[in-house]
Amino acid sequence: MSASKKTSFNLSIITKIEYFGFEKFSRDNFSQELQFIENATIIPLTDEIADIAIDLRRKSRVKLPDAVIAATCVCHDFILITRNEKDFRDISGLDIYNPFSATHG
C-alpha cells in the first residue's frame, strides 16, 4: 500500500457513524481514532447515493448501512476495503478488497 493510501482515504458518512459508535473505544482510543480519521475525506449522503442504495436494497437483502456504504463506493468508483466481504459480495458493480484475505498476500 502506498504512503498516500495510509494517510488519505475516503469514508462514507455511515462508516464514520458506525466506526465512532463502537462502544468499546476507551477515551484514549477514541482520541487516537479521531486523529486517524482526520486524514479521511467523509463522503456525505446524497440523493444519488440514496437512489443507488435503494436499488441495491431492492435487488438484494443487504442491510441499510451496508447498502449506503456500497452505494457510496459505486457512485464514486471507489474500491470498498473491508474485512466483511460476505455482506457485500452479491452487490453488482462493487469492487472489494480485503487486506486480511490470504489471496491478497
**SSE series:** HEHHEHHEE
- Major sheet strand order: 1-2
Radius of gyration: 14 Å
Fraction in helix = 40-55%
CATH class: Alpha Beta
State mean pLDDT (0 to 100 scale): 87
Question: What do these coordinates show?
Answer:
- With 105 residues, this protein is of the alpha/beta class.
- It contains five helices and four strands.
- It has one domain: 3-Layer(aba) Sandwich (Rossmann fold).
- It has helices spanning 3-7, 13-20, 27-37, 47-59, 64-76; strands at 9-12, 40-43, 79-81, 95-97.
- The strands form two sheets. It has a two-stranded parallel sheet. Strands 3-4 form a two-stranded parallel sheet.
- Helix 4 crosses helix 5.
- The longest helix is centred in the middle third of the chain and has 13 residues, at 47-59.
- The chain is globular.
- It starts with a helix and ends in an 8-residue tail after the last strand.
Outline the secondary-structure elements.
Elements: H1 3-7, E1 9-12, H2 13-20, H3 27-37, E2 40-43, H4 47-59, H5 64-76, E3 79-81, E4 95-97
Parallel strand pairs: 1-2, 3-4
Helix pairs in contact: 4-5
Which keywords apply here?
Rossmann fold; 105 residues; alpha/beta; 48% helix; two-stranded parallel ribbon; 5 helices; globular; disordered N terminus; two-stranded parallel sheet
Give a brief rundown of this model.
The chain is an alpha/beta fold and 105 residues long.
